[in-house]
Amino acid sequence: MTCNTLTEAETTAGTRRASPGPCPCRAAAHAVLACCLFVSSAAAEDWPVYLGPRQNGTSAETGLLLDWPPDGPPRVWNKRMGPSFSPPVVAGGRLLVAHRIDDEVIVECLEAATGKPRWEFRYPSRYADEFSYNGGPRSSPTIDGNRVYTYGAAGVLTCLDLATGEKVWQRRLNAQLNAPKNFFGVGVPPIIEKDLILLNPGAPDGAGVVGVSKETGKTVWKAGDHGPSYSTPVVYTIHGRRMAIFLTMNGLLIVEPATGKVLHDFPFRSPLYHSVNAASPVVVDDVVFLSAAYSVGSIALRVTPDKLTTVWRDKETFQNHWATSVYHDGHLYGTHGRHEKEAVMRCIDWKTGALRWSSPPGLGRTTFTMAQGHLLVMGERGYLALVEVTPQRYVEKERVHLLDYPCWAPPVLANGLLYLRGERELLCLDLRAGK
Predict the structure, then answer these.
(1) How much of the chain, in percent, has pLDDT values that exceed 90?
(2) Span 1-167+408-435 CATH architecture
């Protein structure tokens, strides 16, 4: 066990607790199980970052179970945890999840196939939510190579060794930058682009967005005066140029990820003070789609080397609160509505914004992952639904109740297993057809 004292420069207290080493027989059994997991699906992949390996809420997996028993897909394991809204991530047979117990944030590594603990890292937290939500982490961890990065509700940025849980470095980033607390603390995961971590602390003095060295935690560049949002940035290549695309509190901010040079700045937010931008930008070719609730609506912007042009804009048809819409074959699928009672799923035309269909109410505000022509939809009351991806009409094929309210984290699909996160529980389901 290690414990280091916080300094104002780079480090804060943290404790790593490793599980006892497995015996050779047990290790061999786990290796066989991992191998079986991999080959059982026609196509399988890890889910190492928020919204998946393509940053767009889609999975390339096939061979999935799409005809469920009455009580839903088979349950593999579940784990009660401290409160959090943080979805897990999965890579190399390891699942990383963050939660909080009492006054400690816990970053925990589990065997993805069994839920058995491998290690945990703890550090103290005094974050208190002013709107009566829990004080646990909001954003998911990020796995990059042999490292794990987390960004806690109080703005503590941490780098851990993936294999052992040992602390590599840690910073009270938001405190050091004098960033505001924001309404619900920090709720955006670290996004890795080459050697940098891209973040939107919304700090003053030109530190609206920052690039931080993933090796040392040192700030490399600062850019813009935009405030913090709950929208996770995405990085894409447009017209041969790498672009980091942020939807901040103020609107769209596109920067060169290596240097922080501002390329485009476009206002997009509600005039209401108590409002947030939370859904991530959706990028298809050279068009960026933004959407927000609080009477903001949606816009599609074409990115050219020297300017942004509006393709279409609509304030009524599609208002994404926090769930990022997914794109498929010329259409967007997502959740419309700020409040639970009015929330429905909708499909709109990508090129025009025209409404194709709207679902019946009942699932409330939803999050979702697209795989094998279907949306795996998590309703906030704990219902998991299977919805066909078609612009013709809303087709819900399955629905089963699995978790307690609230469920606000998107489903995570990795190597045939589906991970669902409630506020105090993590559930693993087997989606491998024939298993």
Answers:
(1) 86
(2) Beta Barrel (2.40)
